[in-house]
Request: fold
Amino acid sequence: MLEGMKILAADDDEMSLEMLSSILASQGVVCTTVANGRLALEALEATPDFDVMLLDLQMPVQTVWFSIKKR
Reply:
């Protein structure tokens, strides 16, 4: 069901990203992980065809809400 999907995951907790990425990879998902909202925006601009974005709402550097509004 998830196989072949492209997911962007943004979270400042490295352990959460590693666990999420591992679980998704076991299901055939291509998961791109980033540590803050600014990097999420950069990843989205570089690869605009993500199927899903999983975003932590409170991150350092730049919040995701700011990133989304900026886009």
Notes: The two ends are 30 Å apart (CA to CA). The chain has three helices and three strands.
